[in-house]
Design goal:
Helix 4 packs antiparallel against helix 5. The protein is built from 8 helices and 15 strands. Strands 1, 2, 3, 4, 8, 9, 10 and 15 form an 8-stranded antiparallel β-sheet that branches. Strands 12-11-13-14 form a 4-stranded antiparallel β-sheet. It has 2 domains: 205 residues, no CATH class; 111 residues, no CATH class. The protein has 328 residues and is an alpha+beta fold.
Length: 328
């Protein structure tokens, strides 16, 4: 049995927009602290979790109930250490701590919920609170955390914010790619068919419509497009600008900026393009996220459970190094 597990974290800023009458007194840090106070008060005073169903307004959609089960503040580190959990209509997934297998069996002996995501919030004031979020394929995603805090701060609960936006840290700025892109030499795009309708709503481009038509014709499990704009010798076609592909690429990138969920609906998006200096450049949406990795040991005597104390200290050290490098 493995004694360590590889855990990946991504980084994003959480920006709140207060109502106009409160803009002079409330910023993102104060709004976030009020949200966490609300979460903890519900748990300690009312002995219940603050559960928010992201799919509450969707007809016939499987529920996606989210709740933060832990949110403690470390004064030494100036960070909140949190866990957010996901419950659906179907039986939740459990991790067998002895066999390290995942199942939906209701028997809870020696099992724990696996649809749980660890995240830490840096409250050392710079611009907005920065979240260091574990990537858990089965658990809540970045857009779930964004939605959860947006709902708590909105008119449904605290009435202190009218918007909340997660801004994911990328190795290369999306805005920079949009502004500098002059031509496209290579375009790769991959998504699951069930995500195409929402992608079309966000991107609103005929390219997505054509992908949907192909899906309706052959019914694939995934759909991938790999386009190359070169001559037979492999040379880049720099003499003509591919305006249609440039337009589609910029629409996708603008949708990424406007809606965090677009990043999660796309399985792969890669561009090789000509920038405003006439140089060849590339951009990967999925592999281009800033990531921190930890090879985390398991707890002694508790098979299959991560040593969360080690995980926090290890990721905190790597995050602070990233933060210092970014400042320089």
């Amino acid at each position: 049995m493995a004694e360590n597990l590889d855990v990946k974290f991504h980084i994003f800023d959480l920006e709140f927009q207060p109502y106009k009458e409160q803009s002079g007194t409330l910023g993102s840090f104060n709004i976030l602290k009020s949200c966490i106070r609300k979460i903890n008060d519900e748990r300690t005073q009312n002995r219940r979790f603050l559960i928010i169903d992201r799919h509450e307004t969707r007809d016939k959609a499987e529920s996606r109930k989210l709740f933060v089960s832990s949110a403690s503040y470390s004064h030494t580190d100036k960070m909140f250490k949190c866990r957010i959990n996901l419950l659906r209509d179907k039986a939740p997934s459990f991790l067998d701590k002895e066999k390290l297998t995942i199942s939906s069996t209701i028997d809870l002996k020696n099992k724990e919920l696996v649809e749980t995501t660890n995240f830490y919030i840096d409250m050392d004031k710079l611009n907005e609170p920065t979240v260091i979020c574990e990537y858990n394929n089965l658990g809540p995603k970045i857009s779930d955390i964004e939605y959860y805090f947006r709902t708590i701060s909105s008119r449904k609960h605290l009435i202190i914010s009218k918007a909340c936006k997660a801004k994911i840290h990328m190795e290369k700025s999306v805005e920079q790619v949009i502004d500098s892109m002059q031509n496209v030499f290579r375009f790769k795009f991959k998504a699951r068919p069930e995500n195409l309708p929402s992608l079309y709503r966000d991107i609103n481009d005929a390219f997505i419509t054509n992908m949907q038509s192909l899906v309706n014709t052959v019914d694939p499990k995934t759909i991938r497009v790999d386009l190359s704009f070169r001559d037979q010798g492999g040379k880049k076609l720099v003499s003509e600008t591919n305006y249609k592909m440039v337009s589609t690429s910029k629409k996708i990138l603008n949708a990424v900026l406007n809606n965090t969920k677009v990043v999660e609906d796309i399985d792969d998006f890669f561009l090789e393009y000509e920038d405003s200096n006439g140089e060849s450049n590339d951009f990967s949406l999925i592999r281009g996220k800033v990531s921190l990795d930890s090879n985390c040991p398991l707890k002694d005597g508790k098979k299959g459970l991560l040593d969360t104390r080690f995980l926090f200290e290890d990721i905190k050290k790597k995050y602070l190094a990233y933060k210092a490098e970014k400042r320089n």
